[in-house]
Design goal:
This protein is about 50% helix and about 10% strand. It contains 19 helices and 9 strands. Strands 1-2-7-4 form a 4-stranded mixed β-sheet. It has a 3-stranded antiparallel β-sheet with strand order 3-9-8. The protein has a two-stranded antiparallel ribbon with strand order 5-6. It starts with a helix and ends with a strand.
């Protein structure tokens, strides 16, 4: 029979073993001579993320504490050592010149348990190179011109919805409208489907999109565990996309492809372009192995990431742009003038050329993404040991590397008075005189955002649609000060974004 003293001894021994296990794991950066943030058991340095801190706030703290002291600092996601880079020259090197050491994004995916997660943003190595080469032709300027009429059709419906629901003047939660606009644009351009969320805000497309980006603290821990211990996470059959979300979007793709194959329906959308790539590969390479072809799972995965990535990032960026223009009516008027003069030049129509000439509106969008980057950080995985130039530091193979985009873009030494909203920072002359790694909302190098052109096109048309007919001002419910939600990957305002819209044209 066990005595209480035996039980206490046994439990004490377990606690001691756990304690020394963590302490041993937490010696990694000290042993490698890299300055690091002091971790705590059991979450390392990420225990407050999703609860007290947004990820960008944690990385900004690291940046402020270590910038100027070291080009690389270390921290721990649970027991996994991770590195953060703060030197712009080094960041530029790992994106471009030394890309061969950092060609993986260090994002978790699980082909076996969730094929939809194996999309272009996540996958690694040769699988990524092959897929990127296949898909890149679908994002040329020529393909954007083909998709433009679809975006304009949704914008026209967006305009009608605003007129019907707002009337002459109303206070609205603008993020709701912009999310509905983004849902319908990307649903049409990715899947070729009329999501109809402008008329029906509770559409399934939007519901599952919102769910995909909800990240309570336990999802943050799960994400960091899976990203830090990928092989183990796959053995444990861990998935990061909720099963119902994955099944919904995968089902939509499969059903749409089947319908088009049976009826011969053609549309100028992303799905149709992917089907053409698949069919062309099959015709040109009859003897090619299945591994080299664009599979249905790959098609589904690309459509899903096209929707999810564009849905949240575009609606968030346009929301913050409206917020800043509401607070700065002079900037709003200058952007409106740019839109109206450009549209007048093209007969009042949103042509591809017209959207490309809205240069000041582009400056507004870029300044918004500087101050509120939709993705506050970027990641890379070290694929072979890397000697940091000019230091004794060696980043070991498989270490996850963080680039703190939000912290860099809000650094007063790079962007003076960073809290000030100033689109002139993105005049051609100012951009030319600034380090290229100082502004990275879409990444850089071979693994930059493949959907950059489409994202900018969608944001220009969405903002221009509002500006040409409505004046936007703050209201009593407009956030002041602005508080960022802690439980989302993207940067979003807590409590929504309430603004007042007043009609200025018919």
């Amino acid at each position: 029979m066990l005595l209480w003293s035996d039980v206490v001894f046994f439990l004490g021994a377990i606690v001691a073993l756990v304690y020394f296990f963590f302490k041993r794991k937490f010696t990694f950066w000290a042993e490698h001579g890299v300055p690091y943030a002091e971790p705590s058991i059991p979450y390392g340095n990420i225990g407050d993320v999703g609860k007290k801190l947004h990820t960008t706030e944690l990385f900004r703290k690291f940046y402020r504490d270590f910038k100027g002291k070291t080009p690389v600092m270390g921290f721990y996601a649970m027991t996994a050592p991770q590195a953060m880079l703060m030197d712009l020259d080094l960041i530029q090197r790992i994106f471009i010149k030394d890309f061969q050491y950092f060609h993986d994004r260090a994002q978790y995916y699980n082909i076996e348990d969730d094929p939809v997660s194996a999309h272009l943003f996540n996958i690694d190595g040769e699988r990524w190179r092959t897929l990127r080469a296949k898909i890149s032709p679908t994002f040329t300027s020529g393909k954007m011109k083909m998709m433009l009429p679809t975006v304009v059709d949704v914008a026209n419906n967006f305009h009608r919805t605003l007129f019907k629901e707002i009337g002459r003047e109303a206070e609205v939660e603008i993020k709701d409208y912009l999310s509905r606009f983004s849902t319908d644009v990307i649903g049409s351009c990715a899947f070729g489907l009329d999501c109809n969320s402008l008329e029906n805000p509770n559409t399934e497309f939007r519901k599952y999109g919102d769910k995909a980006f909800s990240t309570p603290w336990w999802k943050v821990i799960k994400f960091n565990f899976a990203s830090s211990f990928m092989s183990l996470a796959r053995k444990l059959h861990i998935t990061l996309i909720d099963k119902d979300v994955s099944n919904f979007y995968r089902g939509v793709v499969y059903e749409t492809v089947k319908y088009r194959e049976e009826t011969g329906v053609q549309r100028n959308d992303f799905l149709n372009l992917l089907m053409q790539i698949r069919d062309k590969k099959a015709q040109d390479n009859d003897n090619e192995s299945e591994e080299g072809k664009l599979t249905m799972n790959e098609i589904a995965a690309q459509c899903v990431v096209f929707f999810l990535a564009g849905f949240e990032t575009s609606s968030t960026a346009t929301t913050f742009a409206m917020y800043e223009m509401a607070k700065h009516p002079d900037i709003q008027e200058k952007a409106r003038k740019n839109v109206m003069e450009t549209l007048a030049k093209y007969g009042g129509k949103f042509t591809y050329e017209a959207t490309m000439e809205m240069t000041y509106l582009d400056q507004v969008i870029n300044e918004t993404m500087r101050k509120y980057p939709p993705l506050g950080s970027l990641t890379r995985r070290v694929t072979q040991d890397y000697q940091v130039p000019g230091t004794k530091c060696v980043l070991k193979k498989d270490i996850r590397v963080i680039i703190p985009v939000h912290a860099i873009q809000n650094d007063p030494e790079i962007f003076p008075d960073p809290d000030k909203f100033d689109p002139e920072r993105f005049s051609a002359e100012n951009v030319k005189n600034r380090h290229s790694a100082a502004f990275l909302p879409f990444g850089d190098g071979p693994r930059n955002c493949i959907g950059l052109r489409f994202g900018m096109l969608q944001m220009r048309i969405g903002l221009a649609t509002i500006l040409k007919s409505f004046r936007v001002t703050t209201s009593a419910r407009t956030p002041n000060p602005l508080i960022i939600r802690k439980d989302t990957f993207a940067m979003t305002s807590k409590g929504g974004m309430w603004l007042k819209l007043k009609r200025i044209s018919e």
